[in-house]
Fold this sequence. Notes:
This is ZSWM7 protein. This protein is of the alpha+beta class.
Amino acid sequence: MDSTLPAVAEELLKEIKKAFQETSHGKDALFFRLKFIFGxxxxxxxxxxxxxxxxxxxxPSGRTAYQVLGSSGKLYTCYxxxxxxxxxxxxxxxxxxxxxxxxxxxxxxxxxQAMGACQELSVSEEQLTSILLAEGEDEG
Length: 140
């Protein structure tokens, strides 16, 4: 994760990853902190992780994007390297209003990475380009 997230959020995600790698106790306290830092997007993000809704899409060149099947059934493309999601909530709550650090989809990406719950999909360069371009066509 890049350092564009506040340090406290970065540290919490690292602790969650460590807790799941070690299968240690104390996960409940981490989830309370998660809800405190990320607010109302924390519980829906955890639901998305539980439903295995996050897929890491990689191409042979190493380009990576994430697709998250939202609770509405729509597929959103997320970019963890720049903390961006194509969902309307990201544009409104994160970019316009600055009410949240992340939308539930991006948070689900980070949590699925930390918990080892991310699905993997390898695609060709052309397929990845189509995925990325299809998202832009939906908006226009």
